[in-house]
């Protein structure tokens, strides 16, 4: 057992890292809160004084606020449905014995290591371009008119691009969970006459419950701040302006740091509400 002196020594050695992490998180948060109560226009007068909750009221009552929240939630929900659904199927397939299994797994996971801006550019220019894109050539081959994906199906395009990036992550977590499944359970269900779909529904899927909740939690936290894909493709047009992109427009395009900081506080509140809900869901699954 650890003695009191060893615990004290451990806390002392961990203190610099903890202080650094707290400073890394708290300083930007405090500055955001401070600026949210000020009228701060860097290129038009600088700090124009304290305005109280005016920035919060202006941001939440603007015509773009609720559509941006809706767009954010739609993208997050769409990506989660695709990545979890396809992730389960891919994990099951990759768990089957096949030739070159290791290489196939690496190829499936590799998109997760591509930078968001790079993957968005690839999808925009190589796949979704209405003239020279791969999808345009496929449409022309079948005698159909090419679709301008980023304007006619902008939300679906963003969801597709982001899902392609996050599908490997979900697949990797779910594959790990499937590999921990006791084969004796599946063999017992098969001996009892259970069909493949029944074995999946009553044995495999319940076993994946914890892994699915972890995937949903981690992906949601990151997806709430989606920005690069939208900036590269639609730049917030055609109904794809998320809350993060709206904050960017208020800060950099409108040069209104105070208004953008108030939007950042709203984004933090939204993220915490969703995170608390998901943490409770994860806790319930882990207790089972």
TrEMBL record:
Keywords: Cell membrane, Membrane, Transmembrane, Transmembrane helix, Transport. Pfam families: BPD_transp_1. It is found in: Cell membrane. One of its GO terms (cellular component) is plasma membrane. It is a multi-pass membrane protein. The lineage of its organism: Bacteria, Pseudomonadati, Pseudomonadota, Alphaproteobacteria, Rhodobacterales. The keyword Transmembrane helix applies. Belongs to the binding-protein-dependent transport system permease family. Residues 69-278 form the ABC transmembrane type-1 domain. It comes from Thalassorhabdomicrobium marinisediminis. This is Sugar ABC transporter permease. PANTHER family: ABC TRANSPORTER PERMEASE PROTEIN (PTHR30193). InterPro entries: ABC_transporter_permease, MetI-like, MetI-like_sf. GO terms for biological process: transmembrane transport. The chain crosses the membrane at residues 12-37, 71-94, 106-123, 158-178, 214-238, 258-279. Its main location: membrane. The keyword Transmembrane helix applies.
């Amino acid at each position: 057992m650890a003695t009191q002196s060893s615990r004290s020594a451990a806390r002392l050695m961990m203190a610099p890292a903890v202080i650094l992490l707290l400073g890394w998180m708290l300083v930007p948060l405090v500055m955001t809160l401070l600026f949210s109560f000020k009228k701060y226009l860097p290129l038009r007068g600088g700090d124009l004084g304290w305005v109280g909750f005016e920035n919060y009221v202006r941001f939440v009552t603007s015509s773009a606020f609720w559509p941006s929240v809706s767009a954010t939630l739609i993208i997050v929900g769409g990506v989660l449905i695709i990545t979890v659904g396809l992730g389960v199927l891919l994990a099951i397939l990759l768990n089957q014995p096949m030739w070159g299994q290791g290489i196939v797994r690496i190829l499936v996971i590799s998109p997760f290591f591509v930078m968001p801006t790079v993957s968005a550019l690839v999808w925009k220019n190589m796949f979704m371009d209405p003239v020279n894109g791969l999808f345009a050539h496929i449409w022309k081959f079948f005698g159909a008119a090419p679709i301008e994906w980023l304007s006619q199906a902008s939300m679906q395009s963003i969801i597709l691009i982001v899902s392609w990036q996050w599908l490997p992550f979900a697949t990797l977590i779910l594959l790990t969970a499937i590999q921990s499944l006791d084969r004796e359970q599946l063999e017992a269900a098969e001996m009892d006459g259970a069909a493949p779909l029944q074995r999946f529904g009553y044995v495999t899927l319940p076993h994946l419950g914890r892994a699915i909740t972890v995937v949903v939690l981690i992906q949601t936290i990151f997806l709430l701040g989606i920005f690069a894909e939208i900036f590269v493709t639609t730049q917030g047009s055609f109904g794809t302006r998320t809350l993060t992109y709206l904050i960017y427009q208020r800060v950099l395009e409108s040069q209104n740091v105070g208004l953008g900081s108030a939007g950042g506080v709203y984004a933090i509140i939204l993220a915490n509400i969703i995170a608390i809900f998901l943490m409770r869901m994860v806790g319930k699954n882990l207790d089972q």
